[in-house]
Amino acid sequence: MLKQLLTSISAVALLLVGSSANAAMQEPINLDQLLQQLQQGQFEQTEENKQREARFRAEANEQARILRDTIAERDRLEKLSETLETQFERNEIELAEVTDTLTQRMGSLRELLGVLQQVAGDTSSKLQTSFVSVEYPGRSEQLSALAQKMGSSSKLASIAEIESVWLALLQEMTESGKVSKFNTEVTLANGEKANTQVTRVGTFNMVADGRYLELVPGTDTVAELIRQPSGRYLDTVSALENADSNPVKFAMDPTGGSILGLLVQAPDLGERIDQGGTVGYIILALGAIGLIIALERFITLTLMGGKVKRQMKQDQPNDNNPLGRVMAVQRKYPDVDTETLELKLSEAILREVPKIQRNLTFIKIISVVAPLMGLLGTVTGMINTFQAITLFGTGDPKLMAGGISQALVTTVLGLVVAIPMTLLFATLNTRSRHIVHILQEQASGIIAERSERSH
Question: Are 322 and 308 in contact (CB under 8 A)?
Answer without folding.
Answer: yes
